[in-house]
Structure formats: C-alpha cells, structure tokens
Design goal:
two-stranded parallel ribbon, 46% helix, Rossmann fold, 257 residues, alpha/beta, 9% strand
Length: 257
C-alpha cells in the first residue's frame, strides 16, 4: 500500500492507500486478511493507527501485525508510548488477531554514518557508553511474516533484540573490521546536535523527542536482550557484525564514490 503507487519499484502488486484518506484505506483493504501496520516516526502515529484499525474492522480484516516500539508503557519512554499505545490498545479491542513487534535500534541506522565514513571523518556518538540490543531489520521482517502467515504468534508482544549488547564504539569498531579500515567516533555535544537539526528544518518538538531517546540510551535503558527472535523463528538473532558484513558493499560504494 502506498500513497503514490507510481513511486513504488516494479515487481510488486500495489494499491493506493493513505492513512489520512479513510475512503482509500477502505478500498485498499477490500479482501485483505492480514495487515502489517507501519508508520513513519512522529506524533501522527496514533491518528494513522486508529484510521487503519477502523478501516480494517469495516473490511473484515482478520489479523494485524504492528511494528511498535521498545518499552511501551515504561518510565522514560512516555513519548513513544504515546505514539504507539493508542494503536496497540485499539488493535487489542478490535477483536482481530494481533502481534506487536517492539524493537530497539535498527542495525541499518548505521547507514546514517555514510557521509562521515566517505569523508574520512569521525562518526558522532550520541549514545555515550550506553549499550543496545541492536536488531537486524531482516529479523523483524521475518518475525512479521511468520506472524502474518501462521497463528503461532497471535496475542504476542515481542521485544525483538539482537543476540548481544553493543555500544556505539563497539558498532563502529566492528564495522571498521568488516571494511578493513579504522573508523573513529567523537562525543557530539547536544548543542551541536540541536543546531544541526534546526538547520535541517526539524521542529523543536521532534528534536526534544529524539534527544530524550538518546538520553534514555545513555542511561542504559536499551541494555536489554531477549530471545524472542529465536523463539519466533527457531534460530538465533543476527548480530550487528553479521549485518555489517552482509551490507559492506553499501559502505564501500560510499567510500569509493
């Protein structure tokens, strides 16, 4: 489902649907049995989730698998809980089967370091020494597919983490090993981050949410490991270094460009 189907790469069956256009949602969900619910980060998530749940209920959808967020309902995560809790609650109350996926940081977020790596510059560290159970997005999609195609995961709220806790320094060092070149990091002051985000046109509200999340990581809030990926898939979760190895070409292309 896409707001602009013409922008989707060839090879997919695409229907038009817009979270802010209820009629398009009803049409997109006609004949659909299961939905993987994803929305871009931001305070619009509750509106999008509730619109989708309403349309799905009317269309007779049987199951929703929602990409939620780590630690819903926990102290320190009130913002992301506020974004995702209303959707989770509505899905639970809908009568449909459901599965919630609650990951922390994605391994693919490290692609944001490409400009620094290409320029030979140090990578900004905004997590301090906070460790994270970084998750490979492919593991999230594999669990989502298992939840959509079987009933084995109905009624489960999975906290999906990788197999080990890694700090920012660990990730940069492991990526450097994969690329065969030393990579450096530096601790970026919050004031510099705010100035950069302001230059990019981001709202103060959004910046506050992001920086509060980074503070949560620095204080050890994401230093959590679970075996939920292994329980769901029957295999261990993928490590950050494995992800980096599989995506090394993306980083090397940036260096060689």
């Amino acid at each position: 489902m896409a707001r602009n189907p013409d922008k989707v790469a060839p090879g997919f069956e695409v229907v038009r649907g817009d979270y802010e256009d209820p009629a398009s949602l009803r049409q997109a969900l006609s004949g659909v049995e299961g939905v993987y619910l994803v929305s871009s980060p931001g305070p619009h998530i509750p509106t999008h989730d509730l619109a989708l749940v309403e349309a799905a209920t009317e269309a007779g959808v049987r199951k929703i698998v929602k990409l939620s967020a780590f630690g819903i309902g926990e102290v320190g995560l009130e913002t992301t809980s506020g974004w995702h809790q209303p959707g989770e609650d509505a899905i639970r109350a809908s009568g449909m089967a459901w599965t919630f996926l609650r990951p922390p940081t994605f391994a693919s977020n490290s692609l944001a370091w490409l400009p620094q790596i290409a320029a030979g510059e140090p990578i900004p560290n905004r997590f301090g020494t906070g460790a994270i159970g970084v998750i490979d997005p492919r593991d999230i999609s594999a669990v989502a597919m298992a939840a959509l195609l079987t009933d084995d995961h109905d009624g489960q709220a999975y906290t999906l983490t990788g197999p080990e806790l890694v700090t920012m320094a660990d990730m940069v060092a492991q990526l450097g090993e994969v690329l065969g070149r030393p990579l450096r990091i530096f601790d970026e002051p919050d004031s510099a981050v705010r100035a950069e985000f302001a230059r990019l046109g981001m709202s103060d509200e959004y910046v506050d949410v992001v920086m509060k999340g980074w503070e949560y990581v620095r204080n050890g809030g994401l230093a959590v490991l679970t075996d939920d990926v292994e329980q769901a898939l029957g295999r261990p979760a993928t490590s950050f270094k494995e992800w980096a190895t599989d995506h090394a070409a993306s980083f090397r292309q940036a260096v060689d460009a």
